[in-house]
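lol so apparently i was supposed to do this last week
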Amino acid sequence: MQPLEHLLSPIINNLNNASNQLEDERILIEKIKRQKMDMIQKKITPFQVDLVRPEIAESWKRSSENGLDPLVYNDPPLMDALSFEQRLKEKDYLIQAAAPYVSKLENMLSHIEAYIFLSDENGLILRVAQALDNNRFRLTPGTIWTEETIGTCAHELCIRLNSPIQLCGPEHFCRIFNNISSSSAPIFDVDGNLEGTLTIASPKFHRHDSYSLGLAVIMAETIQKEFQLSANRELLQSALTATEDAMIMIKAGVVIKANKAACQIFKNLEQDLIGSQIGDVFEDIPLLESVLGTREPHINTHIKIKRSKQKFSGSIQPMKSYDNKNLGCLLTLKPINSTLKVSQSSNGFTSRFTFENMIGTSPQSAKLKNLAKKFARHKSNILIQGESGTGKEVFAQAIHNESRPDGPFIAVNCAAIPKNLIESELFGYEPGAFTGAERIGKPGKIEQACGGTLFLDEIGDMPLELQAVLLRVLEDKMIMRLGGSRYISVNFRLVTATNKNLLELVKRDLFREDLYYRISVFKLNISPLRERGSDIVQLIDHFITAYAEAECIDKPTLSSTAKYILLQYNWPGNVRQLSNAISYAVCMSTDGVIYPEHLPDEILKTSSTPVLERHVSEKDVEDIESSSDSDAFAVNISVKEMEKEAIKRALEKADNHVRDAAKIVGLSKSTLYRKIKQYGLDNNIEE
Ligand SMILES: Nc1ncnc2c1ncn2[C@@H]1O[C@H](COP(=O)(O)OP(=O)(O)OP(=O)(O)O)[C@@H](O)[C@H]1O
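anyway here it is w/ adenosine-5'-triphosphate bound
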């Protein structure tokens, strides 16, 4: 913006400086009038006009070129009623935003007779307050006041220059304004586009004129701020409407705002809820009052509302102004049964396993489940150990769903996150904590796990520095976000898992001993799959069903030989490997049967003699049985079936020649004949 001296009329500047004010004013006015006429009559050029600002001389020139005569004042045109009505609608938000400030100006300037008017960005007058005595200019809403219609005037120049300006007397083009002073300020929208102007005009020159320009500028800027505020209000309103969460703002113990979702919870209309005392709507007054008082947030806490059996989980965030004044708090509520779903979808973790739906009833698994259920009832930390893929996370989820089903289940794989990010992942950060941090900051996984379970997988891979910090969190139950300055209290159940020998790591100074004892109050050791007998059979069946469903095909049967191979394999990758193998086999299966060749290579290769090329003896099965628990073969895998299968496939390979088939299965020709008959395979056989 230009310096004030340039924005003010020289007449006003002169008034303020001169000792003999009136005389000086009169002389100056006369001189300006003369210069204007000289310029219009082309005796001098705008360039030679030195008593007014160059932009005014230029405007005089344009006004004259528009065919206007400064000595003749024709009533300015009015926009037709229909178009004006339409225009008023379009400019409604400007008119509404400006209304209180126009009224304020009206009051402030009531003693000096002033026009206060609002124009649009084209010079159309939208609103006029306090018309002068006789309104001899006939300035009414709908008047089109521009350089083309009445010549040089303040709001027209303000629009052209995008800047505030003051004109006095003969600086206006028309003689009728010779005694008028007018100050105009532009009003811009939130994107910086010109929306209109605010003008203060008075019939005489006053001492006030030097600050009427300032008043116009300040009021115009206040109107602009009003735009920003209403844009923010709109944004807030859309956010409140869009979210499915109930949101309630509370100040000084009273509900001051509530969204639709909140009104639905309370079965209230918005107007009924707003203004309610918190004591009338919530059970947990001390909690709310503590946030209002201490300004410490409470995240994922349980909140009860009056007259409702429904349980809610919610967060209470204190609200403060830019200068740290207490603005109350914002309460977010969601029904507890939806909490799990939301927290799962927002953090990508699921906790679908329970002790009931996890597969495996082998004696080992049954014992472990009973133990884990007992642990789940207590609050102490649980360490789950076992080879990779044995189902440690499955157990962690089941413990969570047994003990804290309503809270979030947050899993962090300490080995998968880059070392330099683990800290921010776990503890979160405040805005601007480091380069690349999100502008609004972010709660860490520990904070997110409040009210639920934090599952730290691969805890053995946690860097030593962070182990110390984790230990402190477990002791104090408080965290501070990176770049933060306040502690946030946290409440979560910790379950950790590892496939490493943590005590070994402790001995090698790679894991803190104190942390080891703190996280391993309860220990669960999951056996490898190869030692879990009937679990394998049940898991195979479970995975075949699941993958067939996923592929939208009928569930294939598993040939006895393929089953035999799967049972005698030692599963170094445990349940995960078994699941992948079955997924592969289901995809590869043909005619609704999974044969050995449909199994992944690594499993077939480890089978010492390809099973199809030898006889599957009673001994083979006994060996497997002895390495499994007694349930292992409860699923119809009989030796006879295996034998029949082997013979059938040998015959297929030998094109039904018994002699060749006998060689493949390692039986004498006569024994094979007998068995072929016994199993009803003697349809197409040949010598
Ligand atoms: N009892 C079970 N019932 C059904 N599925 C299971 C069971 N145990 C494991 N799984 C499945 O096996 C896979 C591996 O399980 P999980 O991730 O829990 O193993 P883990 O021991 O935590 O592995 P890692 O050590 O690699 O983290 C998962 O897909 C899981 O769903």
